[in-house]
Every structure is written in C-alpha cells, then in structure tokens.
Amino acid sequence: MNEFVLPIRVYYEDTDSSGIIYHANYFKFMERARTEWLRSIGFEQNDLLKEYGIVFVVRSLSLDYLQPGYFNDWLKVHTRILRYGGASLNFTQIVQREAGDDLCRAEVKVACLDGQTFRPRPIPKLIVTEISGGC
C-alpha cells in the first residue's frame, strides 16, 4: 500500500501546561489518520457498520516516543499497512514534525469485528481489493 499522510496542527488543547503535546494525544492523531486513510480509499466507518455490520478496533499498539512536539507545530502522521490478514490490519504510523523530525513511531494492529457480537469477522472483499490494489 502507498503511504497516507495526514497533516495536523497542534492546538493548545493538545498540550500540557508546558506547551508539549500530551502523550495520549498521539493516539488521537493516529486514530484520525487511520480514519482519514479509510475515507481516502472510499469507506466511511459508520457506513461499514450499516452496510457490512463490521467495526474496526485497535487490538494492540506499541508506541515509541522519540522527542516532544509543541504547541503550534505542524505535524504529519504517516500511515502505511505492513500486512493484512483475514480479519486484521497491521499498520506502522509515524508522527513527524513538518521539518521531518520523527516524534513517535507506532505499530498498530486493528481487528475487524462484528458490530453486534464483537467477534472477529473477515475484512470485506471490497476493502481487501482496495488495499491490495495499492500494493
């Protein structure tokens, strides 16, 4: 898959009292990037629930903080699929300052689940086709 990049401005609400990005907000930035990536290939999460009865949820996440980001920084969240299986997607995500400094790196495993039972479900073929078409 090609890399998807989402630009994000750091607002005051994203920082702690010293003007440094609060650590938990990196998770939010990455979630937004995965949502926008999905939207960019033609899928809205609420439509996936209505039409296919599925939801995507984070199953595991490993994150390394490398250096701080600050209020008013422009960031780029780089998102790339490492691999996909029947009911999961593995992403690598890097949050980078616009100048190119890596602030944090993560590997994220996302599971495809039935929207009612929350049991694993195969990723719909239409999504797999879009993902594999970009490889």
TrEMBL record:
InterPro entries per the UniProt record, alphabetical: 4-hydroxybenzoyl-CoA_TE, HotDog_dom_sf, Thioestr_dom, Tol-Pal_acyl-CoA_thioesterase, YbgC/YbaW
Protein name: 4-hydroxybenzoyl-CoA thioesterase
GO molecular function: fatty acyl-CoA hydrolase activity
Record-stated family: Belongs to the 4-hydroxybenzoyl-CoA thioesterase family.
Keywords of this entry: Hydrolase
CDD domains linked: 4HBT (cd00586)
Residues of the Thioesterase domain: 19-102
Tagged with keyword Hydrolase: yes
